[in-house]
């Protein structure tokens, strides 16, 4: 399953940071998932739980911040929320739209000691 | 005492790192790299078979063919005249990633290649997340699918540069409306270059071949650009012509 590999990548980053910063425990992992990232938050949560069973992260919570798709029109500068993934400027109709939010797939923070 | 520790690392940072290395390596060799994506059965392998047949003596092509199981696609491409074909059997992964492509590239002499085609696993969802170091993603749909495909898989269409609509010889046998499919695709990504083809009958392939040759030529021409001469600066900082 796709989200399982994503969850494993999250775990690898957490383990790397735990070692690097000499953390004793991690109780939560904060993730940012954009609407255009191709990752489904519920599937990611489920995969993280499944992948951390019987590991040091078994009790760690995954806290997911979901980010909506936003764009800015290169023609008229209008910033807008992208509805239904249609990248046309609602102001001038141009398709020259830059995505300003929505492609994120980041480990933002850990909570631990 | 628990504290919040800022990490700010992209989840796919390792894949991105490998993809950047691939991009650098292929860029240094001026190889045009294209990542073909689609649902299963849209015609990626057929398009590559046709391309190998038509352009085998014009362009030096290497192909990496990925599938969950079997090397069937890679075998078809070898039969079609591909002499540099590398299969990747993912054994379960629903997409190719940069580490797989790195391993496949190790077996290819990049000094003798103009174009690298990567045929991704048939899947319009997962491959969109994985940068393979390519110059462009080519997304294929066919006229036996829904014309709302782009709206259902926006991330993939957004990240692609070219849309190939295949099986136009079958228009009329389903409710697929090609103009609606195109306008849906352009609503997601107005910059998409669109080709309408039939691999089976040959319609529209000439324009695709012409575009490929042109793109490969642009890539090759970059070899002689003044900014590339910096690669050859001697220790005193004087540029030696490439």
Topology:
The complex is a heterodimer of chains A (113) and B (242).
Chain A: H1 2-20, E1 26-34, H2 41-52, E2 61-67, E3 70-73, E4 79-81, E5 97-101, E6 105-112
Chain B: E1 3-10, H1 13-28, E2 32-38, H2 44-55, E3 61-67, H3 72-79, E4 85-89, H4 98-105, E5 115-119, E6 136-142, H5 149-152, H6 154-159, E7 162-166, H7 178-188, E8 193-196, H8 205-221
Helix pairs in contact in B: 1-4
Give an account of the 3D structure.
The complex is a heterodimer of chains A (113) and B (242). Chain A has 113 residues and is an alpha+beta fold. Chain A has one domain (2-69, 101-112): hypothetical protein PF0899 fold, CATH 3.30.2320.50. Helix content of chain A is 27%, strand content 32%. Chain A has helices at 2-20, 41-52, and strands at 26-34, 61-67, 70-73, 79-81, 97-101, 105-112. In chain A, the strands form two sheets. Chain A has a three-stranded mixed beta sheet, covered by helices on one side. Chain A has a three-stranded antiparallel beta sheet with strand order 4-3-5, with no helix packed on it. In chain A, strand 3 and strand 4 (79-81) form a beta hairpin. In chain A, helix 1 crosses helix 2. Chain A is elongated. Chain A starts with a helix and ends with a strand. The model of chain A has no long low-confidence stretch (mean pLDDT 93). In chain B, helix 1 packs parallel to helix 4 (98-105). With 242 residues, chain B is of the alpha/beta class. Mean pLDDT of chain B is 90; it is low at 229-242. Helix content of chain B is 34%, strand content 20%. Chain B has a single domain (13-219), classed as Rossmann fold (3-Layer(aba) Sandwich), CATH 3.40.50.300. Chain B starts with a strand and ends in a 21-residue tail after the last helix. The longest helix of chain B is centred in the C-terminal third of the chain and has 17 residues, at 205-221. Chain A binds chain B through residues 1-2, 5-6, 9-10, 12-13, 17, 21, 23, 27, 30-31, 36-39, 84-88, 94-97, 99, 105-113, and chain B through 1-15, 93-95, 125-126, 128-129, 151, 154-156, 158, 186-191.
């Amino acid at each position: 399953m796709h989200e399982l590999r994503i969850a494993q990548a999250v775990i690898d980053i957490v383990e790397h940071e735990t070692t690097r910063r000499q953390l004793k425990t991690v109780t939560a992992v904060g993730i940012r998932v954009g609407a255009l990232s191709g990752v489904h938050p519920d599937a990611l949560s489920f995969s993280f739980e499944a992948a951390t069973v019987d590991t040091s992260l078994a009790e760690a919570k995954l806290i997911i911040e979901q980010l909506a798709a936003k764009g800015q029109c290169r023609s008229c500068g209008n910033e807008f929320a992208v509805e239904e993934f249609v990248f046309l400027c609602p102001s001038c109709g141009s398709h020259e739209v830059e995505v300003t939010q929505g492609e994120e797939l980041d480990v933002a923070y850990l909570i631990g000691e | 005492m628990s504290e919040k520790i800022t990490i700010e690392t992209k989840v796919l940072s390792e894949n991105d790192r490998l993809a950047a290395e691939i991009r650098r390596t292929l860029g240094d060799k001026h190889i045009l790299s294209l990542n073909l994506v689609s649902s299963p059965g849209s015609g990626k392998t057929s398009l590559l078979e046709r391309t190998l047949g038509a352009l085998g003596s014009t362009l030096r092509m290497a192909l990496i063919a990925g599938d969950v199981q079997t090397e069937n696609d890679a075998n078809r491409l070898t039969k079609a005249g591909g002499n540099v074909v590398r299969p990747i059997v993912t054994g379960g992964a629903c997409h190719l990633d940069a580490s797989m492509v790195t391993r496949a590239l190790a077996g290819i002499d990049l000094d003798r290649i103009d174009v690298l085609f990567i045929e991704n696993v048939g899947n319009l969802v997962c491959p969109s997340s994985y940068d393979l170091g390519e110059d462009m993603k080519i997304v294929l749909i066919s006229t036996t699918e829904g014309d709302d495909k782009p709206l259902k898989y926006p991330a993939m269409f957004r990240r692609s540069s070219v849309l190939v609509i295949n099986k136009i010889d079958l228009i009329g046998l389903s409710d697929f409306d090609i103009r609606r499919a195109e306008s849906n695709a352009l609503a997601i990504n107005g910059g998409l270059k669109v080709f309408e083809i039939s691999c089976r009958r040959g319609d529209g392939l000439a324009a695709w071949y012409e575009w490929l040759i042109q793109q490969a030529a642009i890539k090759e021409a970059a070899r002689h650009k003044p900014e590339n001469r910096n690669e050859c600066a001697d220790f005193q900082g004087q540029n030696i012509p490439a």
